[in-house]
Specification:
The complex is a heterodimer. By secondary structure, chain A is α+β, with helices and mostly antiparallel strands. Chain B has one domain. Classes of the chains: A alpha+beta, B alpha+beta. The interface between A and B is medium-sized, with 31 and 34 residues.
């Protein structure tokens, strides 16, 4: 289904403001299930959903030292996937912070690296290690917080797109 | 002794939760993020355990970790050299951060120590520490192997 160039896709994932503590684990499973069923529009949806299932199991096993997946962070991640769907990003590594936030990582810290931590539905923090666009022999190492919708735009000058996107658009 | 700095030539081990281990087996920088309320990153001073090899140090460390943590099947123990960690953070952190490794013995964990100088939300420093991991070991002993 084609979208009009100027239309903003309706988000599939709603705010979790109304969720009580008791229903949040169920909400996490439901959100993962929604992601799994988005294979037609979100590249790697099934792989990412499978990984999130695994992280949920790990969090259960290591509780209370590991906080369960934070539903707001998960929803922020899913919104990010929706917004970047047309970029066909390579499948990121997904890990869980001590507080249950989702972090997506591309590349390797020893060379080129881009990682986004989803703080909630609206905010993110990213780390960028990449050649300096003005002098590729030098390396930029930066970390900043921003609005979720600004992540890719802020990373663009560092040509992150060139190595985190699938060139064949798969 | 409490608050003694650990020599640069020595090594520390960081317990890395299962959720911090990537699918490719590498340890993510999230393994070096502070939990709410933490003042420093907990590690264990390996040379303090007074064992002959790295493997025996880790074997000695495992039950110590099991006493104070819920060790998961996917969790790992990451080894870092103190001097290398300090140099990496100082040279690659934009503000030239100095991190310090200090002995913070606990009653049931005399090798317990801490990495000081990190702050909450500083993901870059966490990633820089993860980059200089020299070895990793399963945090749970393999069945049939003493540890």
């Amino acid at each position: 289904m084609e979208q009009h160039a100027s239309a903003t896709p309706e988000p599939c994932f709603d705010s979790s403001d109304s969720l009580t503590v008791e229903v949040r684990p169920k909400a996490v499973r439901e959100a993962i299930s929604i992601l799994r069923n988005r294979q037609e529009t979100i590249t790697h949806a099934w792989t990412l959903a499978h990984r999130l299932d695994g992280l949920e199991e790990i969090a259960e096993e290591e509780a209370p030292d590991q906080t369960p997946i934070d539903i707001d962070s998960l929803l922020g991640f899913l919104l990010f996937l929706e917004e970047t769907a047309k970029r066909h990003l390579n499948c990121p590594e997904i890990v869980l912070t001590p507080t249950g936030q989702i972090r997506a990582e591309w590349g390797d810290v020893s060379s080129r690296f881009f990682a986004v931590r989803f703080i909630g539905l609206e905010d993110a923090q990213f780390v960028l290690i990449a050649p300096d666009p003005a002098n590729p022999r030098k390396t930029v190492r930066a970390s900043t917080s921003c609005a979720l919708e600004s992540v890719m735009r802020l990373a663009e000058p560092y040509r992150v797109n060139e190595w985190i996107q699938d060139p064949d658009g798969r | 002794m409490e608050d003694d700095s650990i020599p640069d030539r020595d090594h520390v081990a960081r317990y890395c939760r299962g959720g911090s281990i990537r699918i490719d087996g590498k340890v993510s920088g999230v393994a070096f993020q502070l939990r709410p309320g933490e003042e420093y990153l907990s590690v264990d001073w390996l040379e303090f355990l007074n064992q002959e090899s790295r493997e025996s140090q880790i074997a000695r460390l495992r039950p110590i970790l099991e006493r104070r943590l819920k060790v998961g099947a996917k969790a790992q123990i990451a080894v870092l050299n103190v001097g290398e960690a300090k140099r990496a953070v100082r040279s690659e952190c934009p503000d030239g951060r100095e991190v310090d490794f200090r002995h913070k013995p606990l009653k049931d964990a005399p090798s317990h120590s801490g990495i000081f100088g990190c702050a909450h939300g500083e993901d870059l420093i966490s990633d820089l520490l993860a980059r200089i991991i020299s070895q990793t070991f399963p945090a749970k002993a393999v069945s049939g192997v003493q540890g």
